Every structure is written in structure tokens, then in C-alpha cells.
Amino acid sequence: MSTDVKRARLAEILRGCGSVVVGYSGGVDSVFLAKVAVDLLGPGRVLAVTGKSDSIASWMEDTARDVAARFGIPWLEVETREMEDPRYAANPSNRCYFCKSELWGRLGEVARERGFAAVLDGSNADDVGDHRPGAVAAGENAVRSPLLEAGLTKDEIRAWSRELGLPTWDQPAAPCLASRLPYGLSVTPRRLRQVEEAEVALRALGFRDFRVRHHGEVARLEVHPAEAGRVAEHRSRIGAAIRAAGFRRALLDLQGYRRGALNEGLGAGEVMQLVQIGGTA
């Protein structure tokens, strides 16, 4: 389908929903979906809802709030309690299922209490194929994915977001902080804070597409190949930031940042190529 056909299809889907609660993380897709829904349905028929949790980076929460205020998107923040679920905290490979079950359950309650007809998420056409147990939870809670249904890709969403003037149009992907922990390493507030503190420090150094992976006392840094050359330039400050966040040392993953790295161990796997960039031996 052409992009114009996809845009028309998205409008048709949203109008068919009538009134919607949008799962609104502050990321590219959910901000875009909320904005288009408000433009098509009017603010009285849209509510963007953000789940507040230790698993969500504070800067994402700030983005969600600020963009909603700037673009007239009705916004609500609700507390989610996935951290209290031992199945989630154990961090199995389907951890995301328990998190999203909690989130969509809460948003379903909001929709019913306030008289909204549908709950929507921001999944897009590029999300098909990866390991996504959260999608199972969405299906069980009757959550619709209009961007996916319309066939819109991430690049098309970014381009349309730019047309709409959304500041998130070129924002890097930002999944929950728990995705930085390898499966089997329990999810705790302290570990999530360590990851966030380290990533905030690296973002302040100008890095955009990267991840700080938590491996106990070791932080594994994945940097997009386009930014890898800057690691040596900031080596000492990166090491200091990692140690300040509570890690003993930092290792650079020579494969660099790539989508779906957390799930690589679920298949045959590859040997990690690492080099130490900070800390003690």
C-alpha cells in the first residue's frame, strides 16, 4: 500500500473506534497516535494514559507530559504495580507479558470508568516478528493496534510526525528500563535506577542510540555504529559515569547497538565481543 492509502486507513480505523484511550509512553509511536487521534476525533474523545512505574525512565514521563500539554492531548497518569508481581520481578523471557497485562488491565479500567470505547497501543508494522510477549497481553485485553492495522512503518510514522511538528519525530527508541537486564537477572528498583543514571549521563555526553545493559557489577555498553567513534573521546567520562551509577566496570560491546539484542540469547546466540572501557579488573 502507498503511504496515502495507509494514512486513509488509519483515519478510517480511528473514526470507527469512536472514542479511545491511548497507551501513551512518550515514545515516537504513542505520541503520534495520540496526536492523530485528537486531530480526527477531537480532544473529548481521546485520553492518553501513561503508566507510572520504576520501569519507565523519568525523561520519558517528562516527554509524555510536556508533549501532551503542548499539543492539547488530554493526559492521565496511572500507577502500575508490575514490580509487585514476582513473575515479573523474576525476569523470565516473557517478562513483558506480565508488565503489559498489568498496564492494559489498568487502562481497560480507565476506559470502562470514563466511557471510552476502545484501548489502543502504538505497535507498528515493523514490530511484527520480534519476540513480543506483550502483544499476547494486548490481545487478551482487546487492545487494538491501529498503526499496525494500517500497515504504517516506523519510518512513515517518523515522517508524518515531523509533518505534524511533533518533537518526538526523531527520538530514539526507548523501551522500558527492565529491557536492559538479561533474562533471569531479577528486576529490582535499584538495578533500574542504576541503568537510568548511567544512560542519563551518557545522554548528557551527546550519545543518542545506545543501551546500558546491566550484568550485575558490570555494565555492557552498546553504542550505535555511527556514534562508536566518540566512545574513545569520552572514555574516561563514560567510565566515571558507569561507576557513579554503582557498577564496578564498563565493557563496550563491539557489535554495537542493534534492535532486539536482548533476545539474541533466545536462539542459537552469538559470541559477544567486549572490550573494557572503565572500572577495575
Automatic annotation (TrEMBL):
A Gene Ontology molecular function term of the record: sulfurtransferase activity
Domain of life, per lineage: Bacteria
Residue intervals of the NAD/GMP synthase domain: 16-80
Name recorded for this polypeptide: ATP-utilizing enzyme of the PP-loop superfamily
A Gene Ontology BP annotation from the UniProt entry: purine nucleotide metabolic process
Active site residues according to the UniProt entry: C176
PANTHER family: EXSB FAMILY PROTEIN, NAD_GMP SYNTHASE DOMAIN-CONTAINING PROTEIN
InterPro entries tied to this protein: LarE, NAD/GMP_synthase, Ni-pincer_cofactor_biosynth, Rossmann-like_a/b/a_fold
Gene3D superfamilies: HUPs
